[in-house]
Amino acid sequence: MLKMENLSKIYRTGLVETRALRDFTLEVEQGEFVTITGPSGSGKTTFLNVAGLLDAFEQGRYLLDGMDVSRLSDSQMSRIRNEKIGFIFQSFNLIPDFDVFDNIDVPLRYRKMSSRERRERIERAAAQVGLSARLRHLPSQLSGGQQQRVAIARVLAGDPRLILADEPTGNLDSTMAREIMDILEDINNHGTTLIMVTHNPEHAARAHRQLHIADGRMVDLERLSPMPLNRHAEPSVAAN
Amino acid sequence: MFAYNLRLAWKSLRRNPILSVLIVGGIALGVAISTAFITVYHVFSRDPLPNKSGVLYYVQMDNWDPAAPAHPHVSGLPPQITYRDMRALMRSRIPARQTASYQAALYVFPGDDRARPSQEPVRMVFSDFFPMFEVPFQYGSAWSRAADAADTGPEPVVVISSVLNDRLFGGANSVGKTLRIDRSEFRIAGVLAPWRPSIHMYDINGNPFSDPETVFLPFNWGERLEIRSTGNFDNWTRFDGNPTLKDILFNSEADFLQMWVELPDEASRQAYKSFLDAYTTDQRKAGRFLRPLDNRVTSMRDLIRQWKVVPPQTKAIASISILFLIVAALNLVGLFLGKFLARAPQVGVRRALGASRGSIFLQHLIECEVVGLIGGAIGLLLSLGVLAFFNKVFGSLARTQDFFRLDLTMVLAAVVLSLVAGAIAGIYPAWRICSVPPARYLRNQ
Amino acid sequence: MPFGPIFRAMTRNRARFLLIVAEVALTLAIVANCVSLIRQSRAELARESGFDDENLLSVTSRAFAEAFREDNYLDAAIDADARTLNAMPGVRAASNTYFVPWIGGGSSTEVMEGEKRFRTQFYPADLRLLDTLGVKLVQGRSFTREEFAPGSGGSAPANAISPALISEKLADLMYPQGGAVGKVIRDSQGVDAYRVVGVFGPFYNPYGWPIGDYAIFYPARSGNFRSIQYLVRAAPGQARTLIPEIEKTLLAANNGRNVEVKSIVEIRSFYNSRDQSVVVALNAVMILLVFVTALGIVGITSFSVAERQRQIGTRRALGATQADILRHFLLENWMVTTIGAVLGAGLAYAINVGLVTMVDGAKLDGWILVAGVGLLWAVGLGAALGPALKAARIAPAIATRNV
């Protein structure tokens, strides 16, 4: 699903160069659930940005779903982000002036899709995260957990092959965090590849594979559990 | 605290010079345009005679052709009166003062035979004219009432303007000298101080912004020396052949005189009105004034308004220019918002250090007002340029180079306008920045 | 196009949009009314006299020598001046007439046709009038030397039928059936009568009353002791040099007077100066206003982009292309401008009602508003383009930055 070979990413500020990723090599298989841990400034976020085509890299090769994405134009990358990748952010990144429905709608607006299909997808996704009754609420009227569920619904509506989650539970208390983890795990159980950056060792331990980044390099690989078998089935999560 | 806020405002202005120039420039433009156009309106509409415009009254009588539609003048009446009616009205003792007047043009011959004579604009008036219109004298004074019509006729006296006195006598005191006007010699009784009322208020029948005349002669010389009017002349009487001056003065409906009376109180106004009505009713017996009875005594203040002396566009443009300033100020709201919210973190620190919402609000509002005043000062300078331009365009009509001038009132108006503009531009951004929660920006970036 | 969500979002975050709405509305209202006032003044300024204005000069002779009080001397002086002027090199034609174009007035009388009364301008003139003005004889003939009565004084001969030339518009007004030539016009007092010998055109001279198009000329010398008036038509390009020449030549012929020469162009621009300054002032206000409004839209849109950086980054992360972001901001701006324009149209009419009563100005023409809305769309999009491009360049990686 995702294959990085000898990737390097350098940040320049004035005369100072920071190597955020060095000779970074990683392969993630379809349907896998991978967590990434590491200290602040180790390059976790840089890895996510590069993996999600949010940021360019200098050297190395990156194959996403079998396609070499190192030489793509900005709009081609936008298209891949829109159709293949789903993002979940630590601070949810909902659009504050949009209600739940319009927020879930955002990625769908960038596809050529009839308004009926969009409505169906939005309603289905909202139902999957248990927010059917709140479609006309504004983010500010929702709890943190509910907001993150909206963000997950936004991903589900787009039906991506890869989900990149950046500390999805970082801003939540432990009950809500566990709830979110259940939903994510369930989505993964139905076949979507999931890469998650986290600080929380308990959550990290729920993955098939746990990676550790330090100083822009992969330092540790550890397979924890076998791949699930029932891929490509519909997720059946229904959080309250 | 105020000085501290001023210093903060100044530092903030210097931090982002381009933005500051844009903001100051916007306010300067708005203030320049609105101050200039308000000044134009102010100059046009300024009461030319604030002490007297309420007690000086202009007389109109409807002696127009009974077979014709109403006189096409804006008032619907002939704007001037006839010589014979003037003679009758002047006999009234009701007004405290009164004068008839008309404009003429006569040659003035300088004492030096080598200099060419010049044709000068002349105003024929009674002696009351000078106190009625507060005409200022530099040397000498007006002639006496007795001189208007002594037993032997009017006295040969003249009042000249400072302009003519400069030209003929180099500005020296010329009272008592004689001056040849047309074919007669006149003794100079007075020389005016420089005098340029904003409106040619004693005669607004022609160009209401023209200069005062340079020569003032006793009215009764007009008949004696056959001095004809060069002003507007309305006459519906026809004569067989060329009429003599006597025909025009005594046997026609030729309107060419302005009649002014000073009526200090309501009682005298009523009395004068009744006197006029009685006069015209009596004249009907002689077959005159056959149109419906319509005599008017209008105060100078009302007359200037009713005759639309002030170009109506100036009021429209003045209002439009104020709207312009409001739009200019509204435009700056966005710029201030950006400027202020960019320093939200810093404000967060201030709030955490104990600054109240009120003091943050005040700090930013003062910054806006400082900007407003700087812009206003620049705008005031710019408006001088705009007014200079108007003087150039309009100067030919007013025949003066500083017809539009900023006075103290207008400078104050500019200050108020720039404060208002600063407030319009600043209140919302200042309110937004002071309602930033202190904690939000204190987390690490 | 996501009108719905953008509009719903706008209603929730009103302040910044209301600012633009207010600006656009005020701007449209002001611009529309300025244009309306300008069109009104321009219509006045655009009126043409129909004469050869560019080459016409007004010559005034003001006598001080006593000899001019004598009628015979005056007549001889007028004839001599007319001959002198016509003989000057660079002069195409010169005429002794009391008529001077563009001074905003003149003399008028009331004449009758049947029971109907007509007010018309009314001037004496000599034989060369039509040549001098540069107008055409449309019907009939001009004056003949025989019709030229001796004497002067600017008044028609009494109790005789004088020939007359009348302007085309007056002929149309008095004789809609045609056949003006040969008709006898009586003045409303029934004293004087004129036989129309010719009809000429074009003629327009603004007057205090709405009789600018109507004129009767009768053959007579015009002038008195105080002043004698001539019109001179210069050969093309000669007017400027003729001004001092004429003064010199006339004074050389007779020194007992002062001579003033003015170009009709100068007289006309003096007459037009008020309307002219109104047009200049309104144009300046309008241009500056549109400029300032554009500036304001740039400011507010920049601010709104800066404020929504994270949101833009998120949209990019969720798959929006740069073009999508650009389109989003332009669309948002267009919607706000349009709302402002709709309110502005209403406001424009409200202000116009005030202006109509204040200035007896013209009613607002709907097309001005349509053009104004078009202008504001263009200005709004132009102003929003810069900040919108800046928004499109915001890096998607901003979405993962944690505050």
Shape of chain C: elongated
Q: Which strand order does the major sheet of chain C show?
A: 3-4-9-6-8-7
Class inferred from helices and paired strands of chain B: alpha+beta
Oligomeric organization of the protein chains: heterotrimer
Strand order of the largest sheet of chain B: 3-4-9-6-8-7
Could you give a short account of the major beta sheet of chain B?
A: 6 strands, mixed, barrel
Strand content of chain B: 15-25%
Helix content of chain B: 40-55%
Please describe what this structure looks like:
The complex is a heterotrimer of chains A (240), B (445) and C (403). With 240 residues, chain A is α/β, with parallel strands linked by helices. In chain A, 32% of the residues lie in helices and 27% in strands. In chain A, the strands form two sheets. Chain A has a six-stranded mixed sheet, with helices on both faces. Chain A has a four-stranded antiparallel sheet with strand order 2-1-4-5, covered by helices on one side. In chain A, helix 3 crosses helix 4 and helix 5 (144-158) runs parallel beside helix 6 (174-189). Chain B is of the alpha+beta class and 445 residues long. Chain B has 14 helices and eleven strands. In chain B, strand 3 (97-109) and strand 4 form a beta hairpin. The mean pLDDT of chain B is 87. In chain C, the strands form two sheets. Chain C has a six-stranded mixed β-barrel with strand order 3-4-9-6-8-7. In chain C, helix 9 packs antiparallel against helix 10 (366-392). Mean pLDDT of chain C is 88; it is low at 152-156. In chain C, strand 7 and strand 8 form a beta hairpin. By secondary structure, chain C is an alpha+beta fold. Chain C has helices at residues 3-12, 14-46, 71-87, 129-133, 168-174, 239-253, 264-307, 309-317, 322-359, 366-392, and strands spanning 56-63, 91-96, 108-113, 116-125, 136-140, 161-167, 184-187, 193-201, 215-219, 228-234, 257-263. The longest helix of chain C is centred in the C-terminal third of the chain and has 44 residues, at 264-307. The two termini of chain C are 31 Å apart. Chains in contact: A-C, B-C. At the B-C interface, helix 2, strand 3, helix 11 and helix 13 of B face helix 2, helix 7 and helix 9 of C.
